[in-house]
Amino acid sequence: GLQILDKETDCCVSALAFTPDGCKLAVSDGERITVRNTDDNKKVASIERKNISKFSLSPDAKVLVTYENYRESQDAPNGSPNLFAYDLESGKVLDSRIHIPAETWRPQWSSDSKLCLRMSQGQIHFYIDNRLDEKPCKTLTLSGMRHCSLAKSSINRNLAVYVPGKKSNPSTVCVYTWRDGECIPLANKSFFRADTVSLQWSDTGRHLLVLAATKTSDTSYYGEQMLHFITTSQAGDSASVPMPRKGPIHQVTWKPSGPRERPADERFVVCQGTIPSAVTVFNIKCEQVFSLGSGSFNNLYFNPHGTHILLIPYCFVTFMLSNVFTDYLPVVICIIP
Predict the structure, then answer these.
(1) Which domains does the chain have, with CATH numbers?
(2) Which molecular function terms from Gene Ontology are attached (predicted)?
């Protein structure tokens, strides 16, 4: 049932984070970060760090990484470390460094925590078995890269790196695979007209969706979006995903699947178009499998098993938080075969 966590101070909760399996919960109250089991509420670790608003737990709950905004002061005119990594069992600081870009502080792990990568000063550092107190076992340098995404699969350890275009040069997404301690190139996908790019791996780590967007366009104040598909299974083949109608792409999400999922069974869902937006299911051939209808939807959420999807109407969360319901906003639950 519902449990109320015991507070160790009078401060309010400023941030929290779960492990991917939901077994551990980390909570910051402004004075310290406490890690607890979610089943019995037992405290398993406590790290004293003040004013922390962002942190991340490794999937095995053995490492905690905290981030605070970079600051300079009279005592530290060149700044002081604002990114820390802790071993939760001993409380030892594994690593501390200055990290200025707020978008790339968060480490990325494979689902088994065997591989971890961190972006630092225009490079990607690779670590094995959470040994963040050692030098990286491999470093990848790619000129101009902005961000990257590691597939969570413990079997297909693939990595995508986004490099923005400059002047007449297109933007590029470079795909690598981690094998035997080496980062091996697999594929490249180049495209024009992209101010921002989001990268989404399937659960199996075989396929990648690249959502490229411009801030403005000649036809819409939403800008323009294009959805690209890259597979690592067939020599890095890629394709543009055809949209069922004109209009913005509100959200893209993969159907959750296990490591033994057959490639032919993998699916992704797109919520797209001007309101009423269309919700469409695609296979990995980028073919429309079926439609979930249309409505004032802009958010999609799968259950962990990938059997049901929740279609949430525009501004539904805002109405819930304000507790004001001027109109009935239906929430639709669909069953995905």
Answers:
(1) 1-99 (2.120.10.30), 107-240 (2.130.10.10), 245-336 (no CATH)
(2) mRNA binding; ribosome binding; translation initiation factor activity; tRNA binding
